[in-house]
Design a protein that fits this description.
Blueprint (H helix, E strand, L loop, with lengths): L1 E8 L4 H4 L13 H14 L6 E4 L3 H14 L4 E2 L16 H7 L1 H8 L10 H18 L5 E6 L1 H11 L17 E7 L2 E9 L1 H8 L3 H7 L1
Parallel strand pairs: 1-4, 2-3, 2-4
Antiparallel strand pairs: 1-5, 5-6
Helix pairs in contact: 2-3, 4-5, 6-7
Length: 215
Amino acid sequence: MSRTLILARHGRTAWNHELRLQGHADVPLDDVGRAQAEELAAGLAPLQPVRLWSSDLRRAHQTAAAIGAACGLPVESDPRLREYDVGDRSGMTHAEFADRFPAEYAAWRTGAAGPGEETIEEVAARTVAALRDHLAELPADGVGVAVRHGTCLKTALSALLDWPAAPGNLAGLANCSVAVLAENDFGLRLVAYNVDPEAAAALIAPDFASQVAAR
């Protein structure tokens, strides 16, 4: 028996393109992000996922809607999948944050939360709980998809896999790239990280590529 949870980052937004911190700001996908979401959806559809969860923020929900349309699944919103609340940094680039709030920027570089921000521990608590719930709700041998955000995804994986609790210990996922968690009788493992869905599928099911080619 095994369960597989695919963690997908949302498509690009204008703020992503401008390197602005988004946090809980409800920024929609831009044209590139919408195209990325359609490509991601096409790549995931052959895996026949049975459940689809999403952060309730618009950029994630729009990405999930494309997946849902391709896979014939409703989107189940889960606010626990939201990105960090970045407080006063929302809408700023890192350079702007350093220029406007130098003391807070220096503290943030050491891992401290800035004004109005969530801590690593707070984000880990809600996101790990969501991951565990989603895995538990999958049927035996089922595949699920959860669409979420880059930094909270890194924090969740670090906490879930008992790695050091710092978002800097993993490179960020590219927009509409995926990570894959697999749970079986031997426990939980990270199968893939920051890959496209076709590459992830080849790792989930080694004969997947030949099955698709034969169709």
